[in-house]
Amino acid sequence: MRVLDWMLPGPDKTTLPPPTNSDYRVLFMRYERIGDMIMATSVIRNIARTLPSGKVDVLATPTTAAVLERNPYVGNILMLDRKSWRSYRETMKRLRREKYTVMVDGRINNPPIFTSTPLLMYAGRARFRVGARGDRRPRIYNVCVPEWNRVDHYMEGSKLLAIPFGVDPDGADWQPEIFLSDDERDQAEKSWQEAAGLVNGSTDGGSSKRLLVNLSASEPKRRWPDGKFIATLQAVRARNPQMPMVVIGLPAEWDSVSKVASAANALPVKTPNLRDAFALVGTSDMVFTPDTSISHAASAFRRPSLVLLKREHKPYAPWNTPGEIIAWNEDEIHQLPHERVKDALNRLIATYGG
Q1: 3-state class of 289 per DSSP?
Q2: Are 179 and 70 in contact (CB under 8 A)?
């Protein structure tokens, strides 16, 4: 890392030059989880608005790239498969060709000495490299913003990456965004119509609000048991007999999705790709989910949500989302009592389902 520090171009410490023409090109690097990329869309938007082109290129993974589809603030999407050395080689070759003015490391929770980011920045040869870093060496970034304190919300740390571009963090909108096509919305609407038909015989759903339930979590330790989902949803169904409910999950959990949906008189819907799930979130009225990318999608669509979140993960909670977070502190999520969740879900529906 010290060798890379010495070999990287540009001054050791500097500020960004003002963007004056279309040759001023910015690459935002964010190649981890789906939820991280969703949160990053607000940073990308605010940086893009300062540029003559109005767009920022983004380095993503084949999975997280789906978040950026149809985003008007995103230019080129560079793909990096983190499991493939060939992908690293090809990405580094492309970075060398693209000749970016500025490269921004959006991974504020990972010190650069533990990531591949410095190698990618070396390949890009950008004279200006923005990242969250203190005074310690090696100084991979030469336009540094304060390190995230890991106590405030993750978005509070991410905002700082836009300050070198002249963005006022207190005056800008930091709500994430996901953009759907008409076809994606139409397909999701068909599912909701079918869900309405299950409970009231009419595909228009009447005046009942729609509840989307996601079972899957990014890790097994965050996955609430099927039985507790069933107990919770059956209690909610008893109080809301005509409310359309859709249940989704990862393709590998289709048996669980079907079982839970059947027990709650809800519609199980297959979501073979991420965009299908996003469309259901965007056309819902409320969302119930464990800590996963769906909670951040709900934030992007401003959907009231009930999120089951490990207490220590509160800095990664969905940003500025109406609803409630159950910050569980049990050793395992399966110890979280369904009565607590049932009461919270009933409060959500009472507040936003009228």
Answers
A1: strand
A2: yes
What DSSP character marks residue 113? G
Which structure tokens are listed for 207? Answer: 């005046």
- Tell me the pLDDT tens digit for each residue of 285-302: 999 999 889 999 999 999
Q: What amino acid occupies position 114? A: F
Cis ω for the linkage preceding 138 (within 30 of 0): yes
DSSP assignments along 126-172, one per residue: -SEEEEE--S-SS---SEEEPPP-SSS-HHHHHHGGGGGGT--TTTS
H or E segment and range at residue 118 = helix 117-124
pLDDT classification of 10: cutoffs 50, 70, 90: confident
- pTM for the structure as a whole: 0.94
What domains sit in the chain, N to C, each tagged with a CATH number? 2-165 (3.40.50.2000), 182-352 (3.40.50.2000)
Say how far apart CA 211 and CA 349 lie, in whole Å: 9
Q: How many CB atoms lie within 10 A of CB 153?
A: 18
CA dihedral sign of residues 7, 10, 11, 13: negative
Residues paired with 129 in a beta bridge: 103
Residues contacting 15, CB < 8 A, separation 6+: 143, 164
